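Budget justification aside, the reviewers requested a transparent look at the raw inputs and outputs of the sequence design task funded under Objective 1. We therefore reproduce one unedited record. The lines immediately below are the structure tokens for a 113-residue chain.
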């Protein structure tokens, strides 16, 4: 499976999986606020990643009588997060190299003036 061919942009999948792995957020509204996404977008991404088996909803006890939920990465999700992180890193490195080349070109133009 390839995240990008399944209509889940690489950066968005990376950010959601990273946020799930690194926090105790249990609310899609909280994810939306932290990531700057709409609630609908977060809902779509979480449903898509859940349907692929990358994340699941897990019960946990918040207080004495209440049950709460949190999102957790599945073993398959952990592997996929590693793959996505690697692909995301390669993409960002390529963008960085391109930007460095553009900056150098601009410096040459300014130096000629």
């Amino acid at each position: 499976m390839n995240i990008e061919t399944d209509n889940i942009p690489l950066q968005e999948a990376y950010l959601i999986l990273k946020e799930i792995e690194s926090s105790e957020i249990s609310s899609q509204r909280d994810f939306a606020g932290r990531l700057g996404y709409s609630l609908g977008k977060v809902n779509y991404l979480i449903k898509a990643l859940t349907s692929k088996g990358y994340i699941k909803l897990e019960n946990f006890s918040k207080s004495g009588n209440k049950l709460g939920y949190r999102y957790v990465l599945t073993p398959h999700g952990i592997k996929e997060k590693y793959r996505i992180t690697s692909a995301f890193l390669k993409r960002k490195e390529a963008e960085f190299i391109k930007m460095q080349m553009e900056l150098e070109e601009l410096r040459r133009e300014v130096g000629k003036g």
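Residues 75-112 form the longest helix (38 residues). The CA atoms of residues 21 and 112 lie 50 Å apart. Computational costs for records of this kind are itemized in the attached budget.
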